[in-house]
Amino acid sequence: ALHRATENNYEKVLETLLNNNADINLHTEGGEASLHWAAINGHREPSSNTVVHLLLGSGAEVAAQSGEGKTALSIATE
Fold first, then answer.
1. Contact status, residue 18 vs residue 8, Cβ threshold 8 Å
2. Number of folded domains that form the chain
3. Residue 26 and residue 36: Cα distance in Å, rounded?
4. What are the ANK repeat spans here (predicted)?
């Protein structure tokens, strides 16, 4: 649910999940954490910055690598 909320830029859902102790650094089967999805979505939705701030403020691992070995920062700058 956390990844889906991040991917779709659902700020209120994301806030609710984070307030209920969702695992912020859980990776999908493909290796992406929520912060990776926020970086991917940032190319399509400039408003996703709020989602990024929510994730970072909740302790998302900035240096976490995706299944392809990419960090959220490297994805955001592609």
1. no
2. 1
3. 11
4. 1-29, 30-67
